[in-house]
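Lecture 7 notes. Example A: sequence first, then its structure tokens.
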Amino acid sequence: MILVTGGAGFIGANFVLDWLAASDEPVLNLDALTYAGNLENLARLQGDARHVFVHGDICDRALVDRLLAEYRPRAIVHFAAESHVDRSIHGPAAFVRTNVEGSFTLLEAARAYWSALEGEAREGFRFLHVSTDEVYGSLGPADPPFAETKAYEPNSPYSASKAASDHLVRAWHHTYGLPVLTTNCSNNYGPCQFPEKLIPLVIANALAGRPLPIYGDGMNVRDWLYVGDHCAAVREVLASGRPGETYNVGGWNEMPNIEIVRTICALLDELRPDPAGAHERLITFVADRPGHDRRYAIDARKIERELGWRPAETFATGIRRTVAWYLDHQDWVAHVQSGAYRDWIAANYAGRGAGA
């Protein structure tokens, strides 16, 4: 069995579903079910004995200790995190608590558990920490992509909290010998992503005929990674990665935000045309967010060279699959767009020059 934290969230749920589609090894899934955690993401696993869900907080040391003692997992795959930059600007405390204190709690529980293991169980145990490319800071137009050796320069409360957790993971390996692995991924997209992030927000707003808010000039560049490819990379790192190592996971898809939005609009024009006109008419430029990093890009050659992983999806294929999924799952979107979510969107975009 493996323990997955945050396995009801966007990436975590996709990972759990992919894991159980490819393997009969059970998953113990620990998730606090905050606003972005959604058991509907895992609906197809209802009644599946291979999936054990526990509603709980990674900051609860007693709970984590009990789960490790009871289920004896061979690995921990740590996805649980607060992950939205805008939310971190409005309320950084939650990011420090979950991303820093929660990771510390998990590391200490894992260290105690691993230290008591013997033989092959101790030798084979792994703690895999899933992080982000945002810890590396921002790139200029001509700068090389982020390699694993790039110095950390986090610029938002979110990325600073993730950088802190990365450093804790590294320290627990070098100080205590805990067999850790770290992945730093680029921007994920795909099914079940909470509609505060760019791609699902644009799809939801476009279908509703609402403005498509674009920060600044829309030329902030990101590398885009289809979530299924990310899940495959995490599985490969868990299986074959070298303890203590970091692996950058990227999609080799650098694109400015405005191009992403126009691509989505074109797909919606094809798949769900609006009688009122082309969806691009809804694009609205709004005031930029504070400290907005200009460009991220991932150099994913190490994971390809050492572990043989490379993304299977191009952006063209991945974004078409993603738009189609949201069109086919409008009930899911309606359920997650609660009153609390609508209040958040209104607060975040208030004064920026666009409604939501």
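Example B, a different protein, same format:
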Amino acid sequence: MKKKQWKNLKDWVKFLLAVGCVVVFTVFFIFNLWSPIQKPVNVIVPNGASVTRMTNYLYKNKIIKSKELFYFSIRINGGKIQAGEYDIPRGAGVWTIADMLTHGKIATTTVMIPEGYTIKQIKAMLMKTPVLVGDVDCNDDSPVCNLKDGDIFPDTYRIARGTTRLALLELARKKMLEIQQSVNGFPYPEPLKDWNEVVTLASIVQKETPRAKEMPIVASVYFNRLRQGMRLQADPTVVYALTDGLGDMQGEPLLSGHLRTESPYNTYMNKGLPPTPIASVGRDAIRAVLKPANTKYLFFVADGKGGHKFSKDYEEHKKHHAKWREIKQKSSEQ
């Protein structure tokens, strides 16, 4: 090939590459950067909404600039859109929006169900959570309509915004079933006989201390008392009985007279465990009951620092209790 021909060929190649770059940039600009969206936009795609309906809505509300380009983008991405709530970011082009709607990249949020909350407390909390919809109660025979304390697992759940409250409760219920299945075959410490008793004792431990490292020691106290035929004398069980399962005195003190409350949940009046759990339980409380510390402790009382003082006999316990009363007295005088 002659030098002139070779030069002409190279010039053509350069020209075509330049044109190609311009075309690619233009297409990229039109589909990804050509956007009227000046700030994030929330878009809800109703169940059963057609592509035509949503295209008209997006165009009318100045979320897209071209119906034709949006139709084309939807078709390339599969041709179908998914219902849900979407957070469209600032500057999103038709391709980004079509990708979100066809692949169901819906807006998500997190909802935390705290450890130690009762079913009543959890339902009240969920009713005040604005990212959820619907009621927390239902009237059929499904498990989620008949939840008891200990049935759901407290955790932080990442969910679609607009999820129903019952759907979240069902998710938490299934998570608890997974926890139960994960310990199937694990020998329960004597004298516990079944999963209900494991979760029931774990719920007492959960309510007694927020410290994960302390939970196995607290659990050991209750095991020691159960094995010796002593009453558990757990204050949270009395609170549960007094509040009809709410589990919160709402600022009122627990008095000595309350310890004589007639209820199967009052472990000051009845030996053994309550009939069912008194709160939701996390992994640490369950683990503490399945593998309690090896101690001879029979008593414990708050130490004024967020933890507890443990005792092997009542005389030692009385000394610790007297110190706790002094701490409470000084606190009330301040």
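Note on Example B: The mean pLDDT is 88. The longest helix spans residues 3-33.
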